[in-house]
Design goal:
- The chain has about 70 residues and is an alpha+beta fold.
- The chain has one domain.
- It is built from one helix and four strands; from the N terminus they run E-E-E-H-E.
- Strands 3-2-1-4 form a four-stranded antiparallel β-sheet, covered by helices on one side.
- About 15% of the residues are buried.
- The mean pLDDT is about 95.
- This is Methyltransferase.
- GO terms for molecular function: methyltransferase activity.
- Keywords: Methyltransferase, Transferase.
C-alpha cells in the first residue's frame, strides 16, 4: 500500500516531548501510521497503536524520552 493513498479514520494521537509536539499517530483502514513533524509523508502502517507508538519513539533522536501520547 502506498502511503500516499492512506484513508485516515479521524482518530489522531499527538506525541509530545519535553520541547513540545514531535509527531502524530493516525488510525487508518488497516492499522496505524505516524508522521514526525519533519516528515513530508506518513510512515509505514503498523498493526496496533502500541507498535506505532514504539516505531515513532524509535524514529526520534537517540536518547529521546518516551513521548506523551494524547488522543485528539
Amino acid at each position: 500500500m502506498s502511503n500516499d493513498n492512506l484513508t485516515l479514520t479521524g482518530q489522531t494521537w499527538v506525541a509530545s516531548g519535553p520541547a513540545g509536539a514531535v509527531g502524530s499517530i493516525h488510525r487508518v483502514e488497516n492499522g496505524y501510521t505516524f508522521k514526525l513533524l519533519r516528515d513530508e509523508r506518513f510512515r509505514s502502517v503498523y498493526p496496533s497503536l502500541e507498535v506505532a507508538k514504539s516505531a515513532l519513539h524509535a524514529a526520534l533522536l537517540p536518547g529521546s524520552e518516551w513521548p506523551e501520547f494524547r488522543e485528539h
